[in-house]
Amino acid sequence: MAKETKRILVIGAVGQIGSELTPALREKYGRDNVIALGRKSAPPKELAEGGPFEFADAADKEALRTIIKKYDIDTVYHLASLLSATGEKDPDAAWNINMVSLKNVLDLAREYEMARIFWPSSIAAFGPSTPRGNTPQKTILEPSTMYGVTKVAGELLMNYYNKKFGIDTRSIRYPGLISWKTPPGGGTTDYAVAIFYEAIKQKKYTCFLKEGTYLPMMYMPDAIKGTMQLMEAPSEKIKNRFSYNFAAISFAPEHVAAEIKKHIPEFTCDYAPDFRQSIADSWPKSINDSCAREEWGWKHEYDLEKMAADMLENLGRVLK
Ligand code: AKB
Would you state the pLDDT for residue 64? Predict the structure, then answer.
């Protein structure tokens, strides 16, 4: 039987989601109960000093086992991943980092009878044959990127380990995430982060996606809140063990540029689409996340206007 106490391991703690989820988990469950795991990047002060920190490659099963035993881990947030654009440059690395590590985590969860496993899927699980507007929960999953292939395979694996071995697996299909705490990190949706950095530093930005490219997006505080909400929900509420559609806002580059211009009137944005345009064109414009809303109470807070104002205020302070 799974243990009741929470001893949490966050794999990929220095990454985009981990940098914000780890402090939030420490705040809720206590600093010593949340172990941050990085692969090689030096952790920021907040993470290094906020609680236990370890280095290991999650694709190295024995290294992972040592840490799981050392801290008696019963809950894992496995966030380490190569994103879509970086994954297209090195598909082998995308497969190894994204899939081998997930299989390791699931096998160790089984071996050590862990309570709960979280793993992020993405809108990249969808592909050109998926309906692009208000994309339903259950639909065609035929991605055209290696990142997307690993997301579909990961969703199948999460469901398999739940059905076959009874592991409490939980997952969300994240849209593009926007945050001021970590710089853009190799994703197709990361223009929506880079644009804020460049607006503050240069007052201009050249976007690698063209005008009119709508994509589903979310501000990080909403993503953190929703992730914790999913992980805290009673098991009987979690009907879907593949991955939940998860949505907040949807916009195209010119909309976020116009929002920034309200705060920085001299800001200009031009457009020079590159290989990432075809990735974006294969993804949904908007997502239907009614299952997450009905089954475990998901509700977002930030719209485009509120997100942009908060980004500019915080990033402006940090980059000063
Ligand atoms: C990416 O753009 O690759 C990621 C994602 C949507 O999963 N942000």
Answer: 97
Q: Where are the domains of the chain?
A: 8-174+220-245, 177-217+248-286+301-318
Residue 179 to residue 223: CA distance in whole angstroms:
10
Could you please report the per-residue DSSP string of 238-275? Answer: ---SS-EE---EEE-HHHHHHHHHHH-TT-EEEE---T
The finding on whether 189 has its CB within 6 A of some atom of ligand 1 is yes
DSSP state of 1: -
Burial label, 72 (beta-carbon count in 10 A; 0-12, 13-18, 19+): exposed
Identity at 83, one-letter amino acid code: L
Q: Which residues are catalytic?
A: 147
The second-level CATH assignment, the architecture, of 177-217+248-286+301-318 is: Alpha-Beta Complex (3.90)
Atom 7 of ligand 1: nearest residue by CA position: 122
Residues of the chain above pLDDT 90, percent: 94
Residues in the chain: 320
239 CB-contact burial (10 Å; exposed 0-12 / middle 13-18 / buried 19+): exposed
Answer whether 84 contacts ligand 1 (Cβ < 6 A): yes
Confidence at residue 41, expressed as pLDDT on a 0 to 100 scale: 77
Q: Which among 181, 130, 124 has a CA at the least distance from the CA of 152?
A: 124
* 151 contacts 122 by C-beta, under 8 angstroms: yes
At residue 4, the pLDDT reads 53
Q: Which residue of 144, 155, 190 sits with most ligand 1 atoms within 8 Å of its CB, as the best mutation to test the pocket?
A: 190
Below-70 pLDDT ranges, the chain: 1-5
- Ligand 1 geometric centre to CA of 214 (Å): 14
What's the pLDDT score for residue 2?
A: 44
Q: Which pLDDT tens digit goes with each residue over 239-274?
A: 999 999 999 999 999 999 999 999 999 999 999 999
Q: How far apart are CA 168 and CA 231, in angstroms?
A: 10
- Give me the CATH code for the 8-174+220-245 domain, please: 3.40.50.720
pLDDT digits (tens, 9 = 90+) for 108-127: 999 999 999 999 999 999 99
